Fold this protein.
Amino acid sequence: AHLDRIAEVDGKINAFLHVAAKSALAQAREVDRRRAAGERLGPLAGVPVAHKDIFTTVDMPTTAGSKILEGWRPPYDATVTRRLREAGLIILGKTNLDEFAMGSSTENSAYGPTRNPWNLDRVPGGSSGGSSAAVAGYEAPLSTGTDTGGSIRQPAAVTGIVGMKPTYGGSSRYGLIAFASSLDTPGPFARSVLDAALLHEAFSGHDPLDSTSIDAPVPPVVEAARRADVAGMRVGVVKEFGGEGTQRGVLNRFQEAVDLLESLGAKVVEVSCPTFETALAAYYLIAPSECSSNLARFDAMRYGLRVGDDGTRSAEEVMALTRAAGFGPEVKRRIMLGTYALSSGYYDAYYGQAQKVRTLVARDFEAAFQQVDVLVSPTTPTTAFPIGERVDDPMAMYLADLFTIPANLAGTAAISVPAGLADEDGLPVGLQIMAPVLGDDRCYRVGAAVEQ
Ligand code: GLN
């Protein structure tokens, strides 16, 4: 049914870069066979999933949305990929994304933008916009994403679905093509909080192949999603988020969600996190710095595209030609920004300062979580914006992640759940629920209580 749906609508939505129809059907039959043979299978066995094309897959191409990896077949599966398979999930195909996960609209993909199923002239968010659109457009019941600065929560919010950024290190980065290694976090998309929790549980947990993986049990996310009560919980409204610059309809739905939490027995207080306002600026030094270092590996020798290798040019010339042809404008912008911020003489002023801000953001979270169990805010300042509106204005594009970035800098857990539709445009609004490191279950507990 999902393959039929993809055939019917994906020409318009462009959520998928690759559809693995044959292998998906073969795997579905295999799950049927095992079940008929009396095998006890997990709760997601046989359920289709759309997989962000930044996780390596041995049996499918992996492009990271970039021309530089066109036609590349990875030699191994990412840990997340392997765990999806082990749980019996059926990978329908690979989903579109901003090139190397850099963007907030999926317009930075080298393979054309994905469209928002709610309104085909709007963006589906990004960078995991193919994954959010696939679930919102009923092309898949579940999908995977990665969240470096908001790339799961922001697309979830603007397509009216659930998206979770687990605690950093709670889900493995092994085989996830790196953008900013100290921030990148795999997480689930679904149409309900419980479904997201089931997928979260299926692919998370300690991985010895990722040196930053946390060696602790996965928080009890499924139990929390089932519990879905907030009586007696302390909820903090982030004072700095949700005022000026935020769309009226977003603020209205957010206020209703807060009122709902109160009526369900939560104790709501306002909490000040003053450094959250500086998080965006720090992020746009830290993330490009790490990107400039990580993307040095695309040297025309090891992977994918190679341009100008006709026997007359040096390796360095071939590398320069390949990178010039293979990377898109946003990726180049970030490599240049990052290289500049890391260069001697500027390192302390830019990268060093940003790292200090990062510590202060983590301290603001720590202080807040002494007073409250979770923090809430709108997920994004606006609903889905029109395709094309922000492509020539990087600053406007970056602002889409204003509310999501603090959780990445601190490595804490955060979810976006649907909070209704904005009055002005009838488009989805997301409620963000943030919890401490390894407090992922709180996001699910509160999210399940208020999801719409
Ligand atoms: N939009 C942010 C950026 O462009 C976040 C991206 C992400 O989380 N991968 O960097």
Remarks:
- Residues 232 and 266 are 5 Å apart (CA to CA).
- Residues 101-104, 127, 147-151, 179, 287, 401 surround glutamine (CB under 6 Å).
